């Protein structure tokens, strides 16, 4: 990009930004958020913003374990059925009200009401095996949850970012008619303005009560809001984002690995690559007349040259990974390293054996900025055409693709899953019964039983054996082709201090400082 074009692109962002206060941190989003209703009508960008506003009883730590957040501690009964959460004292909502156990219960009941359309209601109502049978408050500072059966992943499910961590909101978040108005949470920042398609402006919550800790630790630890405001700017164009970073119009951006070399050349921009647990995949609709044939799915897996595709897309920052478990996990064993051999001749033979006769198949993707979806689709199309598949790429707006994904309305699709650090939760993202959750792609009963077993046991060796068996079944049945985990490129302007990237692939703006 020429210097003149660089300035023009940055100027476009500055027009949107207006005159920024020196203590306002500006952060880029590659697309607008979908809502401000926690865990409802959400995507990864939505979660990133909302989790600065709301907090749950528990949250993920930096290492992927779960720790207390609004809770002071977590007490579990010997039979594993009762979880007791004493609340931290002095926690306030953004409207000044003090957090009580009744607020937690009210929020939980709202989430579990089908009318709320909370993304994660099925994780707790018994449909997937686990049921929260009762939530009670023996006093104003204690919440007790009783389960139908012991499970090793109850806390992990509560801490899930796509569930908004079951973030507790005040009753005043709703309108008198019960519809959602605005998130009044307990987080370090409060919502000030959402100008659709342009920005989301959060203001520092002066009365925020930070969890204990001296340093940032996932969504726990020290969470002090040290700047006056955070403005998430919608900048869909990657070139404009890079230009705005270079000129100081933006402070923080999560860029794709494609922009890595250019960012390194920019004076005043600090670049921090970090491996993540985000999964880039090709999903199959296994009830489709063509993609329902296992040998066609196997052919797709063997036709894609991972060693060529992944470095080409990531500037060498990421490596192929055929496992649903990210490479940094302690469960990433020798078995998990097994993948598909690139073998075009085998792919052609499998297509022939499957009775494929050149029928057109549509590969759905999108051109969302900062995501590799479109490039993956184009390269995969070429490789699949080379073995005789009549692949047509169908490019959709991201919102339309997400709707099609949720309804299972596609033949095969390039998709990115947000980070899940525990392997059982990573498998849960795509495994389940389609009749209950159409977005699921792997409904093999034996695989689902293995995932349930892994969710119930805590012994690491036994869990490791289960995950290895799952991976071997996964490679055989190919409900999706796992390509690679993202390598995020977090870039910051010269004035930003103490910003910490994370394997969970979400920017966190607490504990961040701005140089004077």
Describe this structure in words.
By secondary structure, the chain is an alpha+beta fold. The chain has 14 helices and 20 strands. The strands form six sheets. It has a six-stranded mixed sheet with strand order 13-18-14-17-15-16, with helices on both faces. It has a four-stranded mixed sheet with strand order 1-12-9-8, covered by helices on one side. Helix 1 packs across helix 5, helix 7 packs antiparallel against helix 9 and helix 13 packs antiparallel against helix 14. It starts with a helix and ends with a strand. The relative contact order is 0.16.
Q: How many separate helices?
A: 14
Q: Let me know the number of strands.
A: 20
What is the mean predicted local confidence, pLDDT? 92
Strand content: 15-25%
Structural class: alpha+beta
Biggest sheet, strands in spatial order?
Answer: 13-18-14-17-15-16
Which segments are poorly predicted (pLDDT under 50) over 5 or more consecutive residues? 1-7
Q: Report the sheet with the most strands, covering strand number, pairing sense and barrel closure.
A: 6 strands, mixed
The N- to C-terminal Cα distance equals 30 Å
What general outline do the C-alpha atoms trace? globular
What share of residues is helical? 25-40%
Radius of gyration: 23 Å
